[in-house]
């Protein structure tokens, strides 16, 4: 990467980002935050809203020019936005409303820390969302076999009893396996706090069966056996070839040139995600879809929860997009079913909340993906903060792997973004007039909240972008941010 300037642009930046299949958010002068959610097949459902952000209290951002607007005294409690970087002494009334971390960073004589301080891990406010603070699941697992195809999770939890030590309900302890292509129900897995708790449950079942009182779902006696995270992952991701599961951790096997069909190509296929949506859109395709309409939604929940997102070197941008697109479509279809009061006993607000909650905590989704989902389901700004969402989340359109570090004050995040925006604007202003003009033309078609960061990252186009792994993308983003901050602060 050329740290002194930009190479001449090759294509119109905004058109390229739309072609990649990600949500694009237009931001034009005089209008609110316009939204467009990208659905499979290139169809965009337009959504628009005015978010009601108190710009007087927190400062505002002029998306057209890329210039931060002055911050005035806040009119409500909370940290003041750091969208403006001060070159002289910061007014006391501003410092009193900033977080301690931002005041520490800007306590020097020139109001800016050295690059080594700004890039220190305890100060740097961005992390790779898929990998940050991840630890593989070690919960105990019980497998329940011979279940009726229309079994629901409430029946399974009731059968196990109130005293069974399954994991907290908000962690989705029940996984009913569904063949994504046929929609056929398989076995069910239940996660327990420990392997000992799982073993105790199986022993209880075996004693009851020996006494002629087997556990039943409906009128059907079921079988119960001690299982493992590895078995659960194999059944949840049956098309993931070339993998040995060590608990919930996948180990990718070397390429076998004599049997390439057994080599690893991904944890899920695009066809699986497409068919998951089709089962809801066209339920008459399968009797299982008609009689068990909630199963595709539950399958999507289990997929997002158990997907090994931290294996970023094995997941491509395109594969992640297929999961996200299926999730958005299922949310939309569930909304429609609830409005029309179809299958109210299973397609209800509880299932809807489970689905969007799983999407909002999904490690693999970007900030703008989650922002689209939060808008679709009508979350407030306060609700979004519970999911570690930054303000101006719809302006993170060119960030594909990084997220705010949990616990980082909002003003620190926005101060870093302001430094990045200021430095990239300065670099563009120093480029040749023809290059500067072309970059500014591209900038008017997209968000400049992060300045011209998208040009410094210098993404490839077309299949080169789609097939890039999340690990490669994260490396590009970390490298670009580090280079920009060093230029700005050294």
**Beta-strand segment tally:** 14
Question: What percent of the residues sit in helical stretches (DSSP H or I)?
Answer: 40-55%
Total helix count?
A: 20
Distance between the termini: 18 Å
Mean pLDDT: 83
Strand order of the largest sheet: 7-8-6-11
Based on Cα principal axes, name the global outline. Answer: elongated
Q: Outline the biggest β-sheet.
A: 4 strands, antiparallel
Assembly of the depicted chains = single chain
Runs with pLDDT <50, length 5+?
1-83
Determine the structural class based on helices, strands and strand pairing.
Answer: alpha+beta
Q: How much β-strand is present in the residues?
A: 5-15%
Radius of gyration: 25 Å
Organism: Cryphonectria parasitica (strain ATCC 38755 / EP155)
GO molecular function: nucleic acid binding
Protein name: RRM domain-containing protein
Q: How are the SSEs ordered, and which strands pair?
A:
Elements: H1 13-19, E1 33-38, E2 44-49, H2 55-58, E3 61-62, E4 67-68, H3 92-95, H4 100-105, H5 115-118, E5 126-128, E6 140-145, H6 153-160, E7 174-178, E8 185-192, H7 195-210, E9 216-217, E10 220-221, E11 223-226, H8 229-236, E12 243-246, E13 249-252, H9 270-281, H10 287-291, H11 295-306, H12 317-339, H13 349-360, H14 367-377, H15 381-385, E14 402-404, H16 410-429, H17 433-443, H18 453-457, H19 463-466, H20 470-489
Antiparallel strand pairs: 1-2, 3-4, 5-14, 6-8, 6-11, 7-8, 9-10, 12-13
């Amino acid at each position: 990467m050329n740290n002194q300037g930009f190479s001449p642009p090759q294509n119109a930046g905004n058109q390229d980002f739309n072609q990649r299949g990600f949500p694009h958010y237009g931001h034009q002068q005089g209008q609110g935050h316009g939204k467009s959610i990208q659905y499979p097949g290139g169809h965009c459902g337009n959504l628009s809203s005015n978010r009601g952000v108190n710009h007087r209290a927190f400062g505002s951002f002029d998306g057209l020019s890329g210039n931060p607007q002055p911050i005035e005294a806040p009119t409500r409690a909370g940290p003041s936005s750091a969208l403006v970087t001060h070159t002289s002494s910061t007014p006391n009334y501003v410092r009193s409303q900033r977080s301690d971390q931002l005041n520490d960073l800007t306590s020097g004589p020139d109001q800016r820390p050295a690059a080594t301080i700004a890039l220190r891990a305890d100060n740097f406010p961005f992390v790779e969302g898929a990998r940050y603070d991840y630890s593989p699941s070690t919960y105990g697992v019980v497998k329940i076999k011979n279940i009726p195809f229309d079994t629901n999770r409430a029946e399974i939890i009731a059968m196990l009893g109130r005293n069974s030590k399954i994991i907290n309900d908000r962690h989705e302890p029940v996984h009913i396996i569904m063949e994504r292509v046929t929609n056929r129900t398989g076995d069910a897995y239940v996660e327990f706090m420990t392997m000992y708790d799982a073993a105790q449950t199986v022993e209880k079942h075996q004693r009851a069966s020996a006494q002629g009182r087997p556990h039943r779902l409906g009128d059907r006696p079921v079988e119960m056996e001690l299982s493992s995270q590895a078995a659960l992952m194999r059944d949840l991701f049956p098309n993931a070839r070339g993998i040995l599961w060590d608990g919930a951790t996948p180990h990718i096997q070397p390429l076998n040139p004599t049997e390439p069909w057994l080599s690893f190509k991904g944890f899920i296929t695009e066809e699986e995600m497409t068919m998951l949506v089709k089962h809801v859109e066209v339920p008459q395709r399968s009797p299982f879809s008609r009689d068990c309409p909630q199963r595709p939604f539950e399958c999507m929940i289990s997929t997002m929860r158990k997907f090994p997102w931290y294996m970023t070197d094995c997941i491509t941008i395109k594969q992640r997009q297929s999961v996200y697109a299926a999730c958005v479509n299922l949310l939309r279809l569930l909304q429609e079913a609830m409005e029309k009061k179809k299958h109210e006993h299973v397609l209800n607000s509880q299932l809807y909340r489970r689905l969007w909650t799983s999407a909002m905590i999904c490690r693999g989704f970007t900030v703008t993906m989650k922002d689209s989902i939060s808008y679709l389901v009508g979350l407030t700004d306060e609700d979004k903060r519970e999911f570690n969402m930054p303000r101006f989340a719809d302006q993170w359109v060119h960030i594909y792997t990084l997220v705010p570090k949990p616990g980082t004050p909002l003003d620190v995040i926005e101060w870093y973004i302001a430094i990045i925006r200021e430095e990239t604007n300065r670099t563009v202003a120093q480029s040749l007039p023809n290059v500067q003009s072309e970059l500014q033309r591209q900038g008017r078609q997209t968000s400049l909240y992060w300045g011209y960061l998208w040009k410094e990252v210098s993404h490839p186009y077309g299949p080169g972008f789609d097939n890039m792994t999340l690990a490669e993308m994260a490396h590009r983003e970390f490298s670009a941010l580090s280079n920009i901050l060093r230029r700005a602060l050294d």
